[in-house]
Design goal:
The protein is of the alpha/beta class. It has 5 helices and 7 strands, in the order βαβααβαβββαβ. The strands form 3 sheets. The chain has a 3-stranded parallel beta sheet with strand order 2-1-3. A two-stranded antiparallel sheet has the order 4-5. α3 packs across α4. The N terminus is likely disordered.
Length: 224
């Protein structure tokens, strides 16, 4: 493994554990950050890079994340747009990197996984509730690029601006087509598959979340 990309949240960085001591550098990327729906107002913001680096020495403080979503929240379609744009930029950066990396480890949240899977494979189901990519707790997904196409994405999208449209549906994929080799693999976990998640179809909570993190996914998602 030649590098890692992680959500800016401490718990996702922590999930990489000892890999942080092996992977240099580890890049913060908000494509991989959590999805809070359209009613976002006071959700916790990630710690800054210098603070995270005190816990994870290889955490890059120089790399600037490609995109930061508005604090007002995102619809599911906007989440597709965010992930498609940042995935395209990320793949383009890796394709042109002088070290020519062959693999990358991404640590992310439940809602992001089915979106990434659909974007890479070019298959968007009619309903976001489809269980095509179920993220189980600490599960592993592996994608292999089986058709390469050069990307030419202009790096002009900045904080909170409208994202450019990235074509990926109908079998197009991002930077070529990808195949899924491992879909939610939990064979390395003693408890196997636990607490999977899929979209509920809702884009905002219809109940108050009194304590952040207390099964908050029961509004925007369904625990399976």
């Amino acid at each position: 493994m030649q590098g890692s990309i992680t959500s800016l949240k401490y718990e996702e960085s922590l999930a990489l554990g000892e890999y942080f001591s092996l992977l240099t550098p580890s890049r913060p990327l908000i494509m991989t950050s959590e999805w809070y729906g359209t009613g976002r107002s006071n959700d916790p913001a990630p710690a800054n890079a210098p603070l995270l680096q005190t816990f994870f020495p290889t955490y890059s403080t120089e790399y600037r994340t490609i995109w930061t979503p508005a604090v007002s929240g995102e619809s599911i379609e906007e989440l597709y747009s965010r992930c498609a744009y940042v995935a395209a930029r990320m793949i383009q950066e890796l394709d042109t990197h002088p070290l020519n990396p062959k693999s990358v480890l991404i640590c992310t949240h439940a809602a992001i996984i089915p979106i990434i899977g659909r974007i890479l494979t070019g298959n968007k189901p009619k309903s976001p509730t489809e269980g095509d990519f179920i993220p189980w707790t600490a599960s592993l997904f592996t994608f292999r690029r089986c058709r390469v196409e050069a990307l030419d994405i202009v790096s002009d999208a900045t904080l909170y601006q409208a994202l450019p449209t990235i074509a990926w549906e109908n079998g197009v994929g991002i930077g070529g087509l990808w195949e899924c080799l491992a879909n939610g693999d939990c064979s390395f976990l003693s408890g196997g598959k636990e607490r999977g998640w899929r979209f509920s179809g809702k884009e905002s909570f219809d109940h108050a979340v009194v304590v952040h993190g207390l099964d908050a996914g029961t509004g925007l998602g369904v625990i399976v």
